[in-house]
Amino acid sequence: MARHHLQSEPTSRLAIWARRMAAFAFVASFLAVIIVRSGLLEIRPALATFAGALAIAVVALVLALAAFVVIWTEGLAGIGAALTAMAVSLALLAYPAYFGLKAYRLPWIYDITTDPIDPPRYEALARLRVRDANPITYAGLYAAEQQRAAYPDVGPLGTNATVQAAYDAALAVVNKRRWRIVDARAPQAGRREGRIEAVARTPIMGFRDDVVIRVRAEPDGARIDARSSSRYGSFDFGTNAARVRGLMNDIEDAIRAQKPERPPPTQQPAKKSTGKKDQPKR
């Protein structure tokens, strides 16, 4: 009995290489994120690794598109490999592409504050910044004008609560957000303002951003100012403005949720004595 040999269709080499490069880009991106979040290496080599992985993802996407053309014209196998490479590459490139589109509408700044005239200063956090990080001093009028034009809703928070209540609300919000508190000093009447310095991290890459909150007493309550800045890079993609905006909203909600202090009980005025004893009724 004669045997029939089934010959399989040749697989497109472009599809195979596209899938390999997409897999390599995914692994490199994952390792870069782990390195940045764990702090195993300095941030610049980790960012260079991440940028290289994205470049490889672009090459894998181009190879996948070329593989589709070859598969269609020559009838080769490998459509699954090409589809996998395209899906992985697009997934890796979607996140930076989203922030790239935002860059066209946002100013090239990395430091946001609610008080550009007298911004809260970094004290404890200043000692944590290395030499190649961004400076701790505020950029001044130029950055303030750009911030005002792009984020007009970012401003200080005024409240009729006491300065201690405002400080407690701010501290509770920072703890709820699980920021790493570096320094926290409660306000003292007539002596010092309340200050909270903390380190916040971005959701995916885990970049460390510095945050300082200042609470000052006002004649009719308290004023809360905040400042958030990136340690590295001259562009923050709007992250610091969104952080300050959300922080002030959360502090305002926390102040409203506080139980109002009970006023001291008022004393009833004593009844005047008539000097006469009450006569028993007959």
Taken together, the total number of domains comes to 2
Helical content stands at: 40-55%
Q: Give the CATH architecture of the largest domain.
A: 2-Layer Sandwich
The level-1 CATH class of the largest domain: Alpha Beta
- The CATH topology assignment of the largest domain is Alpha-D-Glucose-1,6-Bisphosphate, Chain A, domain 4
Ends: how far apart?
Answer: 139 Å
How many beta-strand runs? Answer: 6
The helix count comes to 6
What's the main sheet like? 6 strands, antiparallel
Determine the structural class based on helices, strands and strand pairing: alpha+beta
**Mean of residue pLDDT values:** 86
Kindly provide the radius of gyration, computed on alpha-carbon positions and rounded to a whole number of angstroms: 31 Å
Instruction: Characterize the overall form.
Output: elongated
What does the model show?
With 282 residues, this protein is α+β, with helices and mostly antiparallel strands. It has 2 domains: 13-102; 111-257, 2-Layer Sandwich (Alpha-D-Glucose-1,6-Bisphosphate, Chain A, domain 4), CATH 3.30.530.50. 44% of the residues lie in helices and 15% in strands. It is built from 6 helices and 6 strands; from the N terminus they run αααβαβαββββα. It has helices at 13-38, 43-74, 79-102, 141-150, 163-176, 239-257, and strands at residues 111-113, 157-159, 180-185, 194-201, 208-218, 221-230. Strands 1, 2, 3, 4, 5 and 6 form a 6-stranded antiparallel sheet that branches. Helix 1 packs antiparallel against helix 2 (43-74), helix 2 (43-74) crosses helix 3 and helix 5 (163-176) crosses helix 6. The longest helix has 32 residues, at 43-74. It is elongated. The termini are far apart. Mean pLDDT is 86; it is low at 273-282.
